[in-house]
Amino acid sequence: MSFTSSYAHKPPNYKGIGLTIGFHALLFAGAMALPAITAEIPFEGVITAYPIEVDKEPPPPVTAIEDPIVATNPPPTTVTTVPSIVNPPVFNDPPAITSVGIETGIDISNIGDRITTPIAPIETIPEPVIADAKLNTRYSRQFQPPYPSGRLRMGDEGMITVRVLVGTDGRAKQIELVDSPHQDFWTATQRHALKKWRFEPATKDGVRFESWITLKVRFEINS
Predict the structure, then answer these.
(1) Looking at the domain assignment, is residue 188 inside a domain?
(2) What is the pLDDT of residues 129-178, one digit of tens each?
(3) For residue range 134-145, what is the model confidence (pLDDT) as tens digits?
(4) The predicted structure's pLDDT at residue 25
(5) Looking at the DSSP assignment, which residues form a beta bridge with residue 182?
(6) Percent of the chain residues past pLDDT 70, beyond the cut
(7) How many other CB atoms are there within 10 angstroms of residue 43's CB atom?
């Protein structure tokens, strides 16, 4: 008796084969990912500890920490470009200074020779010549006033001081008392001066004018 399989002439199922291989690959990968299982064996014995000197490690080097503000915002710097001097200038003596107009550039050194208008001289006013009033020597004998009779009998002597206003005619226009030891001396002097005294009036550049003069009159008894 013969047996013929129904699958003998069917093509292989590639999809099923791929699924089978993928399933086994996943199982293998899961087995590899599982942690290893170790059996803990209890230790029976004595552990002895010994001190061991450990070399100390040197401290790490200190590094400079940059300021974040400075690092992120550095200060602006100005770069000045200095041109190279190929031929440096030679400084000689300064040129002679001449009178040249700055704005126009015209030489004005000889402008003084072109001025033809004469300059008037400055007039100076001389100081006035003033002569003070004084006694007229031609009338010197009339100067002494008469001695008061009452003072003469008493034997009183003294000297008085007066101010006299001399007019342009040389006469005493006014007389004032400055100092007198007795009233009689002043009265006698006042009357006599207004009548008899003569003066040379004061002048200013030869012109007469009124002025005051101070005089002293002495009263003394001649033995």
Answers:
(1) yes
(2) 999 999 999 999 999 999 999 999 999 999 999 999 999 999 999 999 99
(3) 999 999 999 999
(4) 72
(5) none
(6) 49
(7) 6
Half-sphere exposure of 190 (CA within 13 A, CB side): 12
Torsion of CA 63, 68, 70, 72, to 10 degrees: 120
Asked if the structure places residue 182 within a domain, the reply is yes
Domain count for the chain:
1
Residue 159's nearest CA partner among 137, 136, 178, 134 is 178
Element (H, E) at 192: helix 183-196
- DSSP symbol at 169: T
Question: In CATH, what number is assigned to the domain containing residue 206?
Answer: 3.30.2420.10
54: its two tokens: 């450990």
* Position 6 confidence tier, pLDDT thresholds 50, 70, 90: very low
In a domain, 139, yes or no: yes
Spatial CB neighbours of 196, under 8 Å, sequence gap ≥ 6: 139, 142, 143
- Which domain, by its residues, includes 176? 134-216
- Tell me how far apart the alpha carbons of residues 159 and 217 are, in angstroms, rounded to a whole number: 6
The verdict on residue 151 lying in a domain is: yes
Q: Are the C-beta atoms of residues 192 and 164 closer than 8 Å to each other?
A: no
In which region does residue 56 sit, left (phi positive, over 0), alpha (psi from -120 to 50) or beta (all else)?
beta
* CA-to-CA separations, 124 to 8, 119, 127, 197, in angstroms, rounded: 163, 15, 9, 40
Least confident among 55-59, 105-109, 141-145, 208-212: 105-109
